[in-house]
Amino acid sequence: DPALMCWTLQWVSRALVHNPAQLFAGNTFFPYAHAVVLTDSMLSLAILNVPVRLFTANPWVGHNLLIVLAHYLSCVWGGWLAREVTGSETASIWGGIFWGFLFFRVHHIGHLQILSFQAIPAAAAALIRFWRTPGVRAALLFAVLFVAQALVSWYLAFIMAVILAVIAACRPRQETLAPGALKH
Question: What gap in Å lies between CA 83 and CA 91, rounded to an integer?
Fold first, then answer.
């Protein structure tokens, strides 16, 4: 699995730079012309990997840097969500540690697409912030985080949608259905 994820990451990164029209036309499963659709394309991760490819030809460098980045951003964005919900710095620290170093991650260390669920708490925090103070900037932040997470893998997009639906169902209706929020 790690080799497939590394190959997919490198293929999509290469295609973004050299031939975007052939993004999903991987060089495996011949004669099938769209091999990348048979796995998670990790498009948002491939965009982050493009600069790494400029400095090294080793495909594992970008893969491993993205694993480290996934843990780091999970800590930061998990802490952000905890602070948005509780308003406590202590809860923010513990929330970041919890989300960044879930036991679940140990079992999936070779699955970059599974480890890269760091934007889920960021999208949730951005949505809560949008409901509190609706505006174009807050709406765009939420949209960018949602799309970036959804472009990693389809099942992370589904999981994130379910989480956001549960959060929306648990929030007061006057906050989620406020005229200012509905306008955006």
Answer: 7
Q: Select from 149, 91, 93 the least CA-distant residue to 123.
A: 149
Of 131, 135, 105, 132, give the one whose Cα is nearest residue 118. 105
Query: Cα–Cα distance between 173 and 22 in angstroms, integer?
Result: 45
Phi, psi of 176 (to 5 degrees): -75, -30
Closest by CA position to 127, among listed 86, 85, 158, 66 = 85
46 Cβ contact partners less than 8 Å away, ≥ 6 residues apart: 9, 12, 13, 16
* Residue 20: cis peptide before it, omega within 30 degrees of 0: no
Contact assessment for residue 24 and residue 32, using Cβ atoms and an 8 Å cutoff = no
Cβ count within 10 A of residue 89 = 11
To the nearest 10°, the Cα dihedral for 170, 81, 66, 28? 10
Task: Give the Cα separation of 56 and 53 in Å (integer).
Answer: 5
pLDDT in tens, 91-150: 999 999 999 888 877 777 778 888 888 999 999 999 999 988 888 999 999 999 999 999
What's the pLDDT tens digit per position in 6-50?
A: 888 998 999 999 999 888 887 777 778 888 888 888 899 999 999
